[in-house]
Design goal:
Distance between the termini: 51 Å
Strand content: under 5%
Helix content: 55-70%
Order of helices and strands: HHHHHHHHHHH
Number of strands: 0
Length: about 240
């Protein structure tokens, strides 16, 4: 069966003036997943069964809270909490080890269950498959669309995480000269733009030196935010507004 591609959202992400278009793709998927979860879907039995089971990670429960549908979130967390109580009571009754003494290096059922909850998230699960399809679409467009190749080559590069992800995926999606060209272009835009941000950050720090107090800021006022995006995959505009 032919793989589904998402050329419009991928092209849209590369049209955004940002430090990492893959971060933009991820953010758009995340926004859509949060809105879906807090929309009418939270009343559907199959959705509620899944949220009851896996819950939400720290990051995404904060975003759900920020959605302002407090009643919807309360209902979701109420039934999830009830599920946790049910499972925890069952595990607590079973003791640390069924049928004998608990071995020193074994993990208890309670700890394993709570660790599993910490590592699971309905939003993350919902996004995972779609995000992979977006990445596959990047390679498809690079291989088939000259205009997209130009977009990638003229982009401001990628954050560390998404540079590495594209680099690792490339051999499974491209081959021959196209693979060589992609890796060369990827390395170029990543390194050139990381150095650009490094230079902006250096000038930002220089501006705190009295010798440069009367010098222009150039392009460094938001250098700290943009560096954080490059290093930590956090979109710069979520860290605060740019100074004018």
């Amino acid at each position: 069966m032919k793989e589904q591609l998402y050329t419009i959202p991928v092209n849209d992400a590369f049209d955004v003036d940002c430090e990492c278009p893959v971060c933009e793709m991820y953010r758009s998927l995340q926004t859509a997943a949060v809105e879906f979860t807090m929309g009418p879907s939270y009343m559907e039995d199959d959705i509620r069964m899944e949220t009851n089971k896996v819950g939400f990670c720290d990051k995404h429960v904060k975003q759900l809270y920020g959605n302002q549908n407090r009643l919807g979130l309360a209902l979701i967390l109420l039934t999830h909490t009830e599920q946790v109580i049910k499972n925890a009571e069952k595990l607590a009754k079973s003791g640390r080890a069924a049928g004998g003494l608990f071995k020193k290096r074994e993990t208890s059922g309670v700890k394993a269950y709570m660790d599993g909850l910490d590592a699971s998230c309905y939003i993350c699960n919902r996004m995972a498959g779609m995000f992979e399809r977006y990445l596959v679409t990047v390679f498809y467009l690079y291989e088939t669309d000259e205009e997209f190749r130009k977009k990638l080559e003229k982009s401001k590069g990628f954050c560390n995480r998404h540079y590495a992800l594209l680099y690792e995926m490339a051999p499974s999606r491209l081959s021959g000269r196209k693979l060589e060209d992609f890796i060369q272009a990827l390395n170029k835009v990543y390194l050139e733009n990381l150095k650009r941000v490094r230079d902006d950050l250096e000038w930002f720090t220089d501006k705190f030196d009295y010798r440069y107090v009367n010098e222009p800021w150039k392009n460094s006022k938001d250098a700290l935010q943009r560096t954080i995006q490059k290093l930590n995959s956090i979109p710069a505009d979520t860290l605060g507004e740019k100074e004018n």
